[in-house]
Write a structure and sequence with these properties.
With about 200 residues, this protein is an all-alpha fold. It contains eight helices and no strands.
Length: about 200
């Protein structure tokens, strides 16, 4: 008895050995018209194996590409679609350029730093106060994910640093809401009281 592990490795295992044998048989046929009929029959069977993918765009095109790959590009027929070539299949993908943000405080995240910059450039008023209150709460949440002891003084110092020394809140008069119970009104009052001083 010959085990599958001793047989030729399948190019596309999802189709199984029987489909691979059919494709191999198509390649060996001498008559071009017979090869074409055989190829169409094999593609129909391949399509029936995955009926849930029939709604996918270019499903038939994908099947013909798979047939060419399984035949090791040796099946000489007039394909109804332009199939992938051996060279295209073996080309290396292009290099992805990952953004390497230069963040001093990575635990807060890039988006939070951008929002702090926006808040720093805003005119004084209720909107700015509200945004700062929300930002300090989010900073506290982000900080608490990495550190057990959350210090409001540290959060406010980081805010001052990230904002380019534009947002200065006094840690004695300003308290960041507890991460679990967020009360924005209390913080807004403390910001407004600092502005009056």
């Amino acid at each position: 008895m010959i085990y599958n592990t001793q047989k030729k490795k399948l190019v596309l295992p999802e189709y199984g050995r029987n489909i691979q044998n059919m494709v191999d048989h198509c390649v060996t046929l001498k008559d071009k018209e017979e090869r074409k009929k055989c190829a169409y029959a094999v593609v129909d069977i391949m399509g029936n194996m995955f009926p849930h993918l029939r709604d996918v765009n270019d499903f038939k095109h994908i099947l013909w590409d798979h047939l060419a790959i399984m035949a090791d590009f040796k099946l000489e027929i007039d394909y109804p679609y332009e199939v992938v070539t051996k060279e295209e299949l073996r080309t290396k993908p292009g290099k992805l350029n990952y953004s390497r943000p230069t963040m001093k405080y990575r635990h807060y995240g890039k988006l939070l730093e951008k929002m702090i910059a926006i808040a720093a450039d805003m005119e004084d008023g209720e909107k700015k106060d509200y945004l700062i209150a929300q930002l300090t709460t989010q900073m506290k949440k982000s900080y608490s994910q990495w550190n057990k002891d959350v210090d409001d003084e540290k959060i406010l110092a980081d805010l001052f640093e990230i904002s380019g020394r534009k947002i200065h809140l006094d840690d004695e008069n300003y308290s960041i809401a507890d991460v679990k119970s967020t009360s924005s009104r209390r913080r807004l009052k403390s910001i407004k009281s600092q502005r009056r001083k």
